[in-house]
């Protein structure tokens, strides 16, 4: 490990205080700044709002020359430059929205050493024209913001990011700092290899949000459950409710309003003026519940959001983390609540299968959905599972539903075998309703039509309710024993993983189905 460099440290603190007006560094900022200002490469994983910008801005001010910031968010460049100029930092940007003269002025200012920071769109930076120009400049560092855009595994893949590896070849002596708030292991490895950051030091901030209580319930009557959730601990609080469709947003707003809760809608189908107005009211007034599609929340900085509720399943753990992360920014207790059911799983799978994405990409999305399902069905601490996904190990938190009211796992091997063999007996050609009917010995028209009342598994699960079997089926999907084939009318099919279960080589632990009365008792905990 390196020795601290007191000269850089005191210069960094001085800049923090006099230029940016903050008394102390946050988290790992000081360590990162010292590392980069001394000329070393770094990869920064820090949640949104953690304070990534200072990690390259201050080293750029300490080192000679201009700091070049690669950012894909052209719309935000102007804001960032304005903020820096207000603080007295000499900053500018280069992107396609500018005239030739404006761009030329910036380029000349760089060569004359008159700028501290320049933001550049990635597709522009990698042109030979731009690289030639930079060869003539004195460069303090390269900061690669939103570095996960280099990853095909990620949802924001940008092909031009891949070419950024040439920075290392053209400017081997200039330190590079890559920054992102998306940090699963896979993405991280891809950033390192594609940007050739093998010798960089990784600074991984904790993604834990200890003041957020995680809570996931089985979906039965979602609106009623949402109302109960709000009334039993969040009456009068500001919150966000996420739904998948515009129609559901509107229906939920009507329902909450009838129940005396101030709710407003936000989705892409509303006019710009209405959206702006609703957003302004949410920020300004107390206790507004914003019911929204995921279009809402980007760049919203409201510190006192006391809950985020999901009436539909997000697409991935990243999505869940980002959306729930909008709760409790002020550090006071907040709740992330979600109602989820079998239908959500089927719906999300269908959306993936019907998307235009190519096969590889769909496979990635399915993998991400499966990770989220595993999280929903978790028998252990939610936070441990969530952080584990982001590559962080922790111990049970005491502030999530499974910690506060631990589900007593039961041996579900027999039940799982009953389910899997029924899926098999009906030829892997029928959906959830039919399979559960056969299990429960229900002679529906379809069951009789296919003679499935004569199957050996007909009625072997008669002692359990439909809701209980749905719970077992969800867990079978989460554990990947079964998948829903959208190409074939949502038929349930077995995977390779089902085999050891059917052969009795594997014990299956199941999250017991909570009867509604038992649930009412645990509601206090939510
Ligand atoms: P990120 O890019 O990680 O999302 P930002 O760099 O935009 O985060 O910082 C988030 C907010 O925190 C900004 O308002 C920033 O001014 C503030 N901030 C960053 N570092 C500090 C600090 N050391 N002390 C106080 N506020 C800070
Ligand atoms: Zn926990």
TrEMBL record:
<dbReference type="GO" id="GO:0016787">
    <property type="term" value="F:hydrolase activity"/>
</dbReference>
<dbReference type="Pfam" id="PF00270">
    <property type="entry name" value="DEAD"/>
</dbReference>
<dbReference type="GO" id="GO:0006260">
    <property type="term" value="P:DNA replication"/>
</dbReference>
<dbReference type="InterPro" id="IPR010997">
    <property type="entry name" value="HRDC-like_sf"/>
</dbReference>
<keyword id="KW-0547">Nucleotide-binding</keyword>
<dbReference type="GO" id="GO:0009378">
    <property type="term" value="F:four-way junction helicase activity"/>
</dbReference>
<keyword id="KW-0378">Hydrolase</keyword>
<keyword id="KW-0479">Metal-binding</keyword>
<dbReference type="InterPro" id="IPR001650">
    <property type="entry name" value="Helicase_C-like"/>
</dbReference>
<dbReference type="GO" id="GO:0043590">
    <property type="term" value="C:bacterial nucleoid"/>
</dbReference>
<keyword id="KW-0238">DNA-binding</keyword>
<dbReference type="InterPro" id="IPR006293">
    <property type="entry name" value="DNA_helicase_ATP-dep_RecQ_bac"/>
</dbReference>
<feature type="domain" description="Helicase ATP-binding">
    <location>
        <begin position="33"/>
        <end position="201"/>
    </location>
</feature>
<dbReference type="InterPro" id="IPR044876">
    <property type="entry name" value="HRDC_dom_sf"/>
</dbReference>
<keyword id="KW-0233">DNA recombination</keyword>
<dbReference type="InterPro" id="IPR018982">
    <property type="entry name" value="RQC_domain"/>
</dbReference>
<dbReference type="GO" id="GO:0005737">
    <property type="term" value="C:cytoplasm"/>
</dbReference>
<comment type="similarity">
    <text>Belongs to the helicase family. RecQ subfamily.</text>
</comment>
<keyword id="KW-0413">Isomerase</keyword>
<keyword id="KW-0227">DNA damage</keyword>
<dbReference type="GO" id="GO:0046872">
    <property type="term" value="F:metal ion binding"/>
</dbReference>
<keyword id="KW-0234">DNA repair</keyword>
<keyword id="KW-0862">Zinc</keyword>
<dbReference type="GO" id="GO:0043138">
    <property type="term" value="F:3'-5' DNA helicase activity"/>
</dbReference>
<dbReference type="GO" id="GO:0006310">
    <property type="term" value="P:DNA recombination"/>
</dbReference>
<feature type="domain" description="Helicase C-terminal">
    <location>
        <begin position="225"/>
        <end position="370"/>
    </location>
</feature>
<dbReference type="InterPro" id="IPR036388">
    <property type="entry name" value="WH-like_DNA-bd_sf"/>
</dbReference>
<dbReference type="GO" id="GO:0005524">
    <property type="term" value="F:ATP binding"/>
</dbReference>
<dbReference type="InterPro" id="IPR032284">
    <property type="entry name" value="RecQ_Zn-bd"/>
</dbReference>
<dbReference type="InterPro" id="IPR014001">
    <property type="entry name" value="Helicase_ATP-bd"/>
</dbReference>
<dbReference type="GO" id="GO:0009432">
    <property type="term" value="P:SOS response"/>
</dbReference>
<dbReference type="Pfam" id="PF09382">
    <property type="entry name" value="RQC"/>
</dbReference>
<dbReference type="Pfam" id="PF00570">
    <property type="entry name" value="HRDC"/>
</dbReference>
<dbReference type="InterPro" id="IPR002121">
    <property type="entry name" value="HRDC_dom"/>
</dbReference>
<keyword id="KW-0347">Helicase</keyword>
<dbReference type="Pfam" id="PF00271">
    <property type="entry name" value="Helicase_C"/>
</dbReference>
<dbReference type="InterPro" id="IPR004589">
    <property type="entry name" value="DNA_helicase_ATP-dep_RecQ"/>
</dbReference>
<dbReference type="GO" id="GO:0006281">
    <property type="term" value="P:DNA repair"/>
</dbReference>
<protein>
    <recommendedName>
        <fullName>DNA helicase RecQ</fullName>
        <ecNumber>5.6.2.4</ecNumber>
    </recommendedName>
</protein>
<dbReference type="InterPro" id="IPR027417">
    <property type="entry name" value="P-loop_NTPase"/>
</dbReference>
<dbReference type="GO" id="GO:0030894">
    <property type="term" value="C:replisome"/>
</dbReference>
<dbReference type="Pfam" id="PF16124">
    <property type="entry name" value="RecQ_Zn_bind"/>
</dbReference>
